[in-house]
Specification:
Number of helices: 16
Radius of gyration: 22 Å
Structural class: alpha/beta
Strand content: 15-25%
Strand order of the largest sheet: 6-7-8-3-9-10
Distance between the termini: 35 Å
């Protein structure tokens, strides 16, 4: 259990945390959300004493954290950030074992921990344990960052917008994985995000903050049904009105934000873009923005060479549907899709968006709950 009692934090004349009192029960997945500068990251960092409060007390399992050595405290709390921070000169196995080594675990114990954790995220030990971070995709690197935070089996894991830099498909896959891990291992997770969709998808409890104060604490369903203030309603965004499920179209359930590249973009440019955006798949378009197909990082590794245009590597083996087609048909395509997503096109063949399993479920939930008044 984590307890904040009348906690305050100021920087000069600015109050960042204003008399915060909050209790997080053991085994809960709690998401802190709110506008930029609301105090959510500061709240998170006070738990492992990366930031010290000016006033008030914080307890972890009944112990005042100011009475615990800060380094010893951090070794019992997992911490995952957006920048990942894997050690580039260490293998995957060595990165995962950093904290266990500090705690003087044996090599055999570290090896067993690495095996069991990689199995949790369906990464084969023999394939990945001896690779270096530069040999992994952005999504794989972030998976290793999460596993490293779990390696010493900490009861509490702090996550500060860990998936914010990932492409939508990889992000949704990791969201599903972290929720699965949390249920299986029963960890207490405090997760910071500015994305309400992510909060609704992951949280047992959502803590909405604004101006250093807690505005509302509620389950995802309660916050959907009864947002306490207008700022929360604005974060919810416009919801699909209650409709007959059969009337939903592909355009109603797609994600419109996708990463596209022109067919003449060169291979090394694309690799650099994929690395910077931490994406493992690109949608390729022509001069008129019409969809040509996809290119994966594996395609580039197998067939790409410096100076080669990405259009030469395009694969058309992906499921495509029209924006005006029914959501039912989109669902059937999604079930049959090996890639885990369906590309949505406008009538003029330009890219409209992507449909994933998560976006499909979200649309059905919105249709059931309706638009928030």
């Amino acid at each position: 259990m984590i307890q904040f009692e009348n906690v305050c934090k100021r920087y000069g004349k600015a109050t960042v945390i204003d008399d915060l009192s909050l209790t997080v029960e053991e085994g809960q997945f709690v998401v802190l959300i709110g506008p930029s500068g609301c105090g959510k990251t500061t709240t998170l960092k006070m738990i492992n004493r990366l930031i010290e409060p000016d006033k008030g007390r914080i307890f972890v399992n009944g112990s005042d954290i100011t009475r615990v050595n800060a380094v010893a405290l951090r070794r019992t709390i997992g911490y995952v950030i957006q920048q990942i921070g894997l050690f580039p000169n260490m293998t995957v196995g060595q990165n995962i074992s950093v904290v266990p080594k500090l705690l003087r675990y044996t090599n055999a114990q570290c090896d067993e921990i690495t095996r069991s954790l990689l199995q949790l995220v369906d990464m084969d030990y023999d394939v990945y344990a001896h690779k270096y971070p530069s040999e992994l995709s952005g999504g794989q690197q972030q998976r290793i960052g999460v596993l490293r935070a779990l390696a010493a089996s900490p009861p509490i894991v702090l996550m500060d917008e860990p998936f914010g830099a990932l492409d939508p498909i990889t992000r949704e896959a990791l969201q599903e994985e972290i929720k699965k891990i949390q249920r299986k291992l029963k960890k207490t997770i405090i997760f910071v995000t500015h994305d309400m969709d992510e909060a609704l998808r992951l949280a047992d409890t959502i803590v909405f903050m604004n101006g250093g104060r807690v505005v509302q604490i509620a389950s995802p369903e309660e916050m959907l049904r009864n947002p306490k203030e207008d700022i929360i309603k604005n974060f919810m965004g416009k919801r699909i009105s209650k409709v007959d499920y059969n009337s939903l179209l592909a355009a109603d359930i797609m994600r419109a934000s996708v990463l596209k590249v022109h067919k003449t973009k060169l291979t090394l440019e694309c690799v650099d873009l994929m690395n910077r955006r931490q994406v493992n798949t690109l949608l390729v378009v022509d001069d008129d923005e019409r969809f040509l197909g996809i290119v994966t990082i594996d395609d580039i590794k197998k067939h790409g060479r410096a100076g080669k245009e990405i259009g030469d590597l395009v694969s058309t083996e992906t499921s495509v549907i029209g924006a005006g087609d029914s959501a039912k048909e989109a669902f059937e395509r999604l079930v049959d899709s090996r890639s885990g997503y369906v590309v949505v096109k406008h009538p003029n063949d330009t890219v409209a968006g992507l449909i994933t399993k998560t976006s499909m479920v979200k649309a059905m939930a919105e249709a059931m709950w309706g638009e928030q008044e």
